[in-house]
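@channel sequence for tomorrow's demo:
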Amino acid sequence: QPCNISGPLLGSWLSQLPEGPLDENWPYACAAGLYGNSTLPHVQSRPTCSGLCPPGHFCATSPTAQPTECPANSFCERGSAQPLRCPEGTYSDTTGLSGAAGCQRCPQGHW
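structure tokens (generated this afternoon):
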């Protein structure tokens, strides 16, 4: 409801804190699969943080400021919280794959 405010607060946004204890974890860190530009939670307080973890990388912990490159024999799609293993019958010597299409068929006689 409108208030009759005058003086230095005129035109400013005001917020009222709820009664009771404050959540000590606020502001919340970025969730797994997202990354921020700092490990400090107050810098990662936006709902989308800096964005989804980039393709070829995963962001397993919260908060994550430096995405981890996807290891060999796996791939990491955009927004990955954990690497996904190459599908059965395929492998990869390469790190940083962004999709299963980068996995190669195993040579005949190998699995």
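heads up for whoever presents: The chain has a mean pLDDT of 80.
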